[in-house]
Structures are given as C-alpha cells and as structure tokens.
Amino acid sequence: MNPASTDTANGADHGFSAQVNRMFDTAAVHTDHPEGVLHQIRACDNIVRFEFPVKLDDGSIEVIRAYRAEHSHHKKPTKGGIRYALNVNVDEVMALASLMSYKCAIVDVPFGGAKGGVCIDARNYSVHELERITRRYTFELIRKNFIGAGVDVPAPDYGTGPREMAWIMDTYNQMTDDDLNGLACVTGKPVGQGGVRGRTEATGRGVYYGIREACAFKKDMKALGLDTGTAGKSVVVQGIGNVGYHAARILQDEGDATIVGIAEIEGAIYDPSGLDIHDVVAHREETGSILDFPGATNLEDSSDALELECDILVPAALEGVITHENAPNVKAKIIAEAANGPVTTQADTILTEKGALVIPDVYLNAGGVTVSYFEWLRNLSHVRHGRMSRRFEERNAERILRAVDELTDQNFDEKLMEDLVERVGFGASEEDLVNSGLEDTMAFAYEEIRSEREKYGVDMRTAAFVSAINKIAKSYADMGIFP
Ligand SMILES: NC(=O)c1ccc[n+]([C@@H]2O[C@H](COP(=O)([O-])OP(=O)(O)OC[C@H]3O[C@@H](n4cnc5c(N)ncnc54)[C@H](O)[C@@H]3O)[C@@H](O)[C@H]2O)c1
C-alpha cells in the first residue's frame, strides 16, 4: 500500500491527492481568485487507466496495469515522468500530476502537469521484458492520444531512465507520422538520441541549488542555529537512485557538505565523520549493498536513517516516508524534499512546529522538468549544440582584447587572452549552458517563494503553492474559459 495513504490519525482521509489538495487549499486562502477558477486549477483534467498483456521471456503472459494522468491543460503540452513501481495507483498518479502543474508554474516552465505509472517492480524483469513493457505502454499512450510533442511529453521518474525514454521515442517514431517533432515526444533521452547533457543529473543538481539558496539566508540559518552556506553541514540521504545520488554527489563535491548517513532499500549506513558518496556507490556495485561499508555503522532498518543526527535530511526515494509517527524523532533542521511527497501533511505540521525548515518538493525537485524544457526546445528547433573549437574561442578573445586595447591603454598580450578565454568561458559546453540556466531558475524561484513567505507569514510550502496558484490563475484570467 502507498505509505502516504496510511497516515490516517484521527480517522481522516490522508490519500496522497487529498494531501496535495489540502496544501493547495491552505495556500488558496492567501489568494483572491474566484472559487470556480480555484476548483479548475485543482481538478485533474484527464486520466487513463489500462491493462495490457506482455509476453515474458519464459513464454508466459502477464497482464500489466498502467496509468497516465494529465492534470492541467492550461498550458500544452502536459509534462511529467513515468514511474515503474509496484504500488503505483490512480490516487498516486493524480497527486504526482498535480504536483507537476504547480512545479512547472513555480519555475515558469510553460507546461501543464502530467504523470504516468506502470505497476511493476522493474528489478523483477529482464531488459528484454522491460523493453516490451515500455513499448507496449507507449503504444497504448499513442492510441489514447496521451503522448506527442504538443500533447503530453513523458520523462524519467522512479524506476525509469534514459534507456526507457529512448524506447518510448523509438516506438513513437515507428508508430506515428510525426516525423518533424518525433524527438520531442519525450525528454530525458540519452544524449545521442536527442537528449541534452546535464539532464540525467538535473533533478539532483537542482536539489543542490535549492538547498544552497536556502542555506544562503543568514536570518533563516540563524533561526535554525546554523551557519550560512552548505560547507560543513552534515547530510543524510534516503535513496541513492538518480535524484538522491546526484544530489549527494554535488552536495559533497561542490557544496563541501559532509554526507553522514545513506539509506537504501537494503538498509542504511552511518558515519558521523563522513561517507564518501563515490566510494559508497563503488562498494554497492561491488558487493550489491551499501551495508558493511568500511568504518560505517549498519542500520538494519533503513527508515531509522531518517531519525539520524544531521543538519540536512534529503528524502529522495518515495512519498509518505516521514509521517506523524516518525516526524517527532526527526533531528534534521532542514528537510529537503528531493522526492515527491516524502512528508505527509501531518508530519509537515509537526516539523514546522518544531522549527525545522522544510524545502518543498514542488520547488526543490523542479530541476528535472526545467532541463527537460531545454531538451524539448532543442528537439523542436533541431539545433545542434557542441563545444566550439579552441581556435574559435581564441579568435573571439583576440577580437575583444584588441577592442579593449583600442579603448584603454592596456596592452594586448597572450596572458590576458588566456585569462579572458577562461573567465568569459567562450565556447561554453552544452552542459555549462544547461547548468547555468538551471542555477538561475532555481535561484530566481527560491527568491520568489521566499518573498511570498515574508509577505503572508507562511511556511515555504504554502508560499510555493501561492506562487503556483497565482500564475495558473493568471493564465485562466488571460485566456478565459472555453467556450
Ligand atoms: N528522476 C527525476 O528526474 C525526478 C524528477 C522529480 C522528482 N523525482 C522524484 O524523486 C524520487 C526518486 O526518483 P528517482 O528518479 O531518483 O528514482 P530512482 O528509481 O532512480 O531511485 C530511487 C532510489 O530509492 C531507493 N529506495 C526505494 N525505496 C527506498 C526506501 N524505503 N529506503 C531507501 N531507499 C529506497 C531505490 O532503491 C532507488 O535507488 C521520486 O519521488 C520521484 O518522483 C524524480
């Protein structure tokens, strides 16, 4: 069962969608949009549930259940990942699709929200079986008009990655006549198949930028009893898949933070003197487990890691892991929601009352969709981006230096030219461009949410929802309601 739906103290219904809607309602109080518009923003526009047969390697046939929800068509296409997990259900995809709509609005990415899910544990299938499942799922989406560059554009999520996105793209291109825009029917593809450099790590990198922004504010850090900056802060990460691994790696390598705890499906490890994320991943590859990492203490119950002593807790696995039961024991001062919905609404209240800073998912993991937007734009425009040659960079630098020379008394020389090439970053790689676009986006959105928080005296999540609601409501105000 979806753990988020089990947080039912006081007999209340706390399904994942109900929780997201409650967050929405809490924020809507601080806006003045007509009730009907608020209702339309909250509603899930379109959803399909289907089942299809797949032939397994041993010749047997398994029937697989799958979903795709398009939450909001106020902007098209809709956009959102595809999750492969056993506990996928209609409530979960609707909740995740709605979070995508709000997320896109927060970072000003002009998409509506969507989400897909296939009820499988990907670890139980061979690569050939996964390919057949992915292709058949895509075929069903095509038949139901739930995929296309201007319609609905999937991306990776829990249990899927660039490999699955390439299969989706290929199936779409084999089955449709959309020759011009076929590449843009899905994002998160391998770089050789129309993907952009930096997309794989984009969500984790965005998580780092978001945490860095939060840690930069003196007043907020003082209230938490912490110094500003990420350097030296102790971090516990739950889940070192795509999002968690890259977030941990960049927090360690670029943010100089110390990873003291790591939780995975097989258990957790703790070392207050620091765990090198690269070494832990190498150890897991070699032994099949993060447990028994040299110098670290094993925690047999993986969820105990959520209660470890640390400055920053990064839940990066699934929803509903911090509930009213364990929230009182969470010691972290900053809870950085890398996963979608890791903190239930009841737990959120407990953490906020304890004075912790919760950086909400709806902002913090928006790096993936931000860079997906760059990929989609690149696919539609059919532009190539590669690093410019060193000679080209030097010629550019030379031209600029000669111009500077003419305007000032400075003498043009080789050393100055080299400095300029390095500093200005001529011929910046695609990855540099992607990362700086992502960095700006995350910093700008944080500032926006923080100012809503100050304005209304609310927490960061409510402020993020206020920002999303206002932007989507403006869309409806501008375009009107059809017919
Ligand atoms: N991939 C993206 O670009 C993206 C974008 C936005 C949000 N997200 C969200 O981030 C979360 C993780 O997604 P991902 O793409 O990294 O998935 P992933 O499949 O790459 O990694 C998830 C990891 O969590 C681990 N895990 C599962 N249950 C666990 C548990 N109980 N304790 C500890 N570890 C556990 C898995 O073993 C796996 O290594 C999801 O909530 C997803 O919706 C992902």
UniProtKB/TrEMBL annotation:
<feature type="binding site">
    <location>
        <position position="372"/>
    </location>
    <ligand>
        <name>substrate</name>
    </ligand>
</feature>
<comment type="similarity">
    <text>Belongs to the Glu/Leu/Phe/Val dehydrogenases family.</text>
</comment>
<dbReference type="InterPro" id="IPR014362">
    <property type="entry name" value="Glu_DH"/>
</dbReference>
<dbReference type="GO" id="GO:0006538">
    <property type="term" value="P:L-glutamate catabolic process"/>
</dbReference>
<feature type="site" description="Important for catalysis">
    <location>
        <position position="157"/>
    </location>
</feature>
<dbReference type="Pfam" id="PF00208">
    <property type="entry name" value="ELFV_dehydrog"/>
</dbReference>
<dbReference type="InterPro" id="IPR006097">
    <property type="entry name" value="Glu/Leu/Phe/Val/Trp_DH_dimer"/>
</dbReference>
<keyword id="KW-0560">Oxidoreductase</keyword>
<feature type="binding site">
    <location>
        <position position="103"/>
    </location>
    <ligand>
        <name>substrate</name>
    </ligand>
</feature>
<feature type="binding site">
    <location>
        <position position="203"/>
    </location>
    <ligand>
        <name>NAD(+)</name>
    </ligand>
</feature>
<dbReference type="GO" id="GO:0000166">
    <property type="term" value="F:nucleotide binding"/>
</dbReference>
<dbReference type="InterPro" id="IPR006095">
    <property type="entry name" value="Glu/Leu/Phe/Val/Trp_DH"/>
</dbReference>
<dbReference type="InterPro" id="IPR036291">
    <property type="entry name" value="NAD(P)-bd_dom_sf"/>
</dbReference>
<dbReference type="GO" id="GO:0004352">
    <property type="term" value="F:glutamate dehydrogenase (NAD+) activity"/>
</dbReference>
<feature type="binding site">
    <location>
        <position position="79"/>
    </location>
    <ligand>
        <name>substrate</name>
    </ligand>
</feature>
<feature type="binding site">
    <location>
        <position position="242"/>
    </location>
    <ligand>
        <name>NAD(+)</name>
    </ligand>
</feature>
<keyword id="KW-0547">Nucleotide-binding</keyword>
<protein>
    <recommendedName>
        <fullName>Glutamate dehydrogenase</fullName>
    </recommendedName>
</protein>
<dbReference type="InterPro" id="IPR046346">
    <property type="entry name" value="Aminoacid_DH-like_N_sf"/>
</dbReference>
<feature type="active site" description="Proton donor">
    <location>
        <position position="115"/>
    </location>
</feature>
<dbReference type="InterPro" id="IPR033922">
    <property type="entry name" value="NAD_bind_Glu_DH"/>
</dbReference>
<keyword id="KW-0520">NAD</keyword>
<feature type="domain" description="Glutamate/phenylalanine/leucine/valine/L-tryptophan dehydrogenase C-terminal">
    <location>
        <begin position="196"/>
        <end position="480"/>
    </location>
</feature>
<dbReference type="Pfam" id="PF02812">
    <property type="entry name" value="ELFV_dehydrog_N"/>
</dbReference>
<dbReference type="InterPro" id="IPR006096">
    <property type="entry name" value="Glu/Leu/Phe/Val/Trp_DH_C"/>
</dbReference>
